[in-house]
Backbone:
C-alpha cells in the first residue's frame, strides 16, 4: 500500500510532469490564461490519462507482447488513444450534454498530446503492472492539474503587473514557469524511484 | 530560386521554436547539452522530411475526412524507424533522449507542416519545406543547448571552454533554468524585432 502511495506522490509532485519532465507544455502555456478553463482542463486530463493508460496496458499485455509486436507500440498507442478520446466525446455528448458543454472541447484538444501519450510509454518502459500503471497515470494527471491550476492563478495576478515590454506574453510566462519549477525542484530526490 | 525560398523560410522567418512556439517540450527537455540537442534536431528533421514526402505522394488518395489519423499513422511509422535506427547505431544518444524520442510522434510542428504544406504541394517543394523546417528546428535546439551548456557547465559540445575559476550555476541545466533561458531568448527576439521595426519605419519617413 505504501508503495502505491509513494508512486502516486512521486508521479504527482517529485517528478511533476510539466515542471520536471517538461511534457505537455503546449497545453500548459495555452490554457493557463484563465483559471476556470484550467480547472476543467485539469479534470479532463486526469480522467483521460487514467482511462487511456488502463486501455493501453491491456492492449500491450494481451495483444502486442503475445504476438511479438512490441516494436509497433508507438503506432498502436497513438491510434488507440485518439480513437478512444473520440468515442468518449461522442458518449458524453449523447448522454451528458451539460458536462459536454463544460469540457467537451478540452477532450478533443488533448487527444494527441504528449502528456496522454507519455504516461503509457513510461508505464511500458518501467514494466509496471496494471495497478501500478493506473496509480502512475492518476498521479501524473493530478500533478499536471496541480501545476496547471497553480500557474493559471499566478498568470491571472500577472495581468495587473508591470512587465518589461519585450518580455510581455510568452516570455514572462516562461520565466514564471521557471520560478514555479524552482519551487518544485525542492521536492527532487525525496522519493527514490 | 523558389525552392531556396521554401528552404530559408523555416530557418528564421517561420522558425518552429521561436516564431511559431510549437514543439516546446523537446526544446526544453533535451537541450541541457549541445550533443543531445543536435541529435534531437536531426531526428526531427529526418521525420519531418520523410513525412512531408509521404503525405505529398499520397495527397490525392487520402480522403479529407480521415486525413489526420492517416498523417498520425505515417508519422508514428517513421518515428518507429528512426527509433530503431538510433537504438542500433547510437545507443547512448538513444538512452539520453529516452521518452522524448517516442514523443516526436505528437510534435505539433510535424503534423502542422503535413497539414499546411505537404498536403497541398508537390513532392520536391514538400521535401524542401521539411528540410528547411527541420533545419530551423535544429538551429533553435542547438542555440538553446549551447547557451545552457556554456552557462551551466562551462563547456561547449563536451569541450571545456571556461577555466576552473568558473563555478557554473547548475540550475541552468536543471528544469527551472530551461524555462528561464527560453523566456529570455523570446524576450531578446521580441526586442530585436521591435528595434528592426522602428528602424524600418524611421527609414520610411525620411
Residues:
Amino acid at each position: 500500500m505504501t508503495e502505491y502511495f509513494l508512486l502516486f506522490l512521486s508521479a504527482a509532485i517529485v517528478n511533476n510532469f510539466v515542471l520536471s519532465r517538461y511534457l505537455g507544455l503546449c497545453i500548459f502555456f495555452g490554457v493557463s490564461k484563465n483559471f476556470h478553463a484550467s480547472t476543467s482542463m485539469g479534470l479532463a486530463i486526469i480522467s483521460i490519462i487514467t482511462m487511456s493508460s488502463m486501455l493501453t496496458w491491456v492492449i500491450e499485455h494481451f495483444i502486442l507482447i503475445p504476438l511479438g509486436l512490441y516494436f509497433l507500440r508507438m503506432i498502436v498507442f497513438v491510434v488507440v488513444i485518439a480513437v478512444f478520446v473520440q468515442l468518449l466525446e461522442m458518449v458524453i455528448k449523447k448522454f451528458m450534454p451539460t458536462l459536454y458543454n463544460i469540457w467537451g472541447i478540452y477532450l478533443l484538444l488533448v487527444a494527441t498530446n504528449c502528456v496522454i501519450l507519455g504516461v503509457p510509454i513510461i508505464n511500458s518502459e518501467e514494466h509496471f503492472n496494471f495497478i501500478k500503471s493506473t496509480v502512475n497515470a492518476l498521479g501524473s494527471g493530478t500533478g499536471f492539474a496541480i501545476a496547471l491550476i497553480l500557474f493559471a492563478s499566478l498568470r491571472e495576478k500577472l495581468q495587473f503587473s508591470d512587465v518589461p515590454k519585450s518580455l510581455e506574453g510568452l516570455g514572462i510566462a516562461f520565466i514564471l514557469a521557471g520560478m514555479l519549477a524552482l519551487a518544485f525542484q525542492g521536492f527532487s530526490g525525496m522519493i527514490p524511484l | 530560386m523558389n525552392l531556396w525560398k521554401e528552404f530559408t523560410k523555416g530557418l528564421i522567418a517561420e522558425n518552429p521554436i521561436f516564431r511559431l512556439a510549437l514543439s516546446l517540450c523537446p526544446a526544453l527537455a533535451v537541450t541541457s547539452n549541445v550533443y543531445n540537442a543536435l541529435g534531437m534536431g536531426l531526428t526531427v528533421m529526418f521525420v519531418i522530411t520523410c513525412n512531408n514526402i509521404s503525405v505529398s505522394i499520397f495527397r490525392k488518395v487520402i480522403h479529407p475526412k480521415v486525413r489526420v489519423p492517416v498523417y498520425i499513422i505515417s508519422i508514428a511509422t517513421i518515428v518507429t524507424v528512426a527509433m530503431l535506427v538510433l537504438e542500433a547505431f547510437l545507443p547512448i544518444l538513444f538512452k539520453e533522449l529516452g521518452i522524448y524520442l517516442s514523443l516526436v510522434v505528437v510534435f505539433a510542428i510535424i503534423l502542422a507542416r503535413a497539414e499546411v504544406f505537404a498536403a497541398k504541394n508537390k513532392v520536391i517543394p514538400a521535401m524542401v519545406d521539411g528540410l528547411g523546417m527541420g533545419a530551423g528546428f535544429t538551429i533553435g535546439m542547438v542555440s538553446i543547448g549551447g547557451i545552457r551548456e556554456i552557462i551551466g557547465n562551462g563547456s561547449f559540445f563536451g569541450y571545456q571552454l571556461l577555466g576552473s575559476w568558473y563555478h557554473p550555476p547548475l540550475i541552468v541545466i536543471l528544469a527551472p533554468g530551461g524555462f528561464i533561458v527560453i523566456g529570455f531568448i523570446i524576450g531578446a527576439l521580441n526586442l530585436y524585432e521591435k528595434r528592426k521595426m522602428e528602424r524600418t519605419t524611421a527609414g520610411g519617413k525620411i
Remarks:
- Residues 163 and 169 of chain A are 9 Å apart (CA to CA).
- Chain A has a mean pLDDT of 83.
- The radius of gyration of chain A is 18 Å.
- The longest helix of chain A spans residues 35-64.
